[in-house]
Design a protein that fits this description.
This protein has about 260 residues and is α+β, with helices and mostly antiparallel strands. It has eight helices and eleven strands. The relative contact order is 0.12.
Length: about 260
């Protein structure tokens, strides 16, 4: 290990390893520490991370523990394993053009300027089971596509969203490489690719304990509950397009939920 990398690793351990995570399994503690370092800009996109053997040297983790933590981060889209280049921080976020549901304004903007939002896709999977989305989407035995994303808003807080759509109806969302879905406005894609514009939406809000799988991927205020915005979007003749839940933490911005037409969203 080079002297510069050794020094950088010492900084990482001092800043991100110590704290209130001691009760966590070591693989979770390591993955959360690396996640925090990436979100804080300690390691920027494209930065090369220590190799597995080097993590074993600088942390009290076994090789198996290190591999498990890194595998979690790869699956989350935070890091990439490149042959010949090692492990690097992924270029994750892309700005979302014309966000509709996540329209946040800064408190000092007098609703004149939207806070910038970027997204990265965490996972995508096909589900055969039913759930709260089934009636809204008229699932009727079809498989459902679930896409999990993290939104970074105004570079100050993060929102976790889960979208459900009928898998066989929108193959573009099912087949596109995950990295290419970062920053994609799903409403615009559905309108453009399938000629199905959103004509109306149904919205509701609930408050609930923040799920562990949200906390695993988002920066989140300690012990804060989640405000969950549920959105069901419809096209012509109340034809359902998607069902989405947005897990929103306490934050300094204002969420605009009205006075926007589908045609201009």
């Amino acid at each position: 290990m080079s002297a510069s990398l050794h020094s950088r690793c010492d900084e990482f351990m001092e800043s991100y390893w110590a704290g209130d995570k001691d009760k966590l399994p070591k693989h979770e503690k390591l993955s959360q520490a690396i996640t925090s370092a990436i979100f804080d800009g300690f390691w920027l996109p494209g930065a090369k991370l220590p190799a597995e053997a080097e993590w074993v040297q600088i942390t009290p983790c076994s090789l198996g523990t290190v591999q498990r933590a890194l595998r979690t981060l790869v699956e989350s889209g935070l890091i990439q394993r490149r042959r010949g280049s090692g492990t690097v921080v992924a270029h994750m976020d892309r700005r979302v053009e014309e966000p509709w549901h996540m329209r946040f304004f800064r408190n000092d903007s007098n609703r004149g300027e939207l806070a910038e939002a970027t997204t990265r896709v965490i996972s995508r999977r096909s589900l055969g089971k039913t759930g709260p989305w089934s009636e809204a989407l008229k699932q009727d035995g079809h498989k459902v596509l679930r896409i999990d994303r993290v939104w970074t808003v105004d570079n100050s807080f993060e929102v976790y969203s889960v979208a459900y759509l009928l898998a066989d109806r929108f193959p573009k969302l099912a087949d596109t490489d995950l990295e290419d879905l970062n920053g994609v406005n799903f409403k615009n894609l559905i309108t453009r690719e399938y000629n199905l514009p959103v004509q109306s939406i149904r919205q509701s809000i609930r408050i609930e304990d923040t799920p562990d799988w949200v906390l695993q991927h988002c920066r989140w205020p300690k012990k804060a509950a989640a405000t969950v915005l549920n959105v069901v979007a419809y096209s012509f003749d109340r034809d359902p397009l998607y069902y989405q839940d947005f897990y929103i933490p306490p934050n300094p911005c204002i969420l605009d939920m009205g006075n926007i037409s589908a045609a201009n969203a």
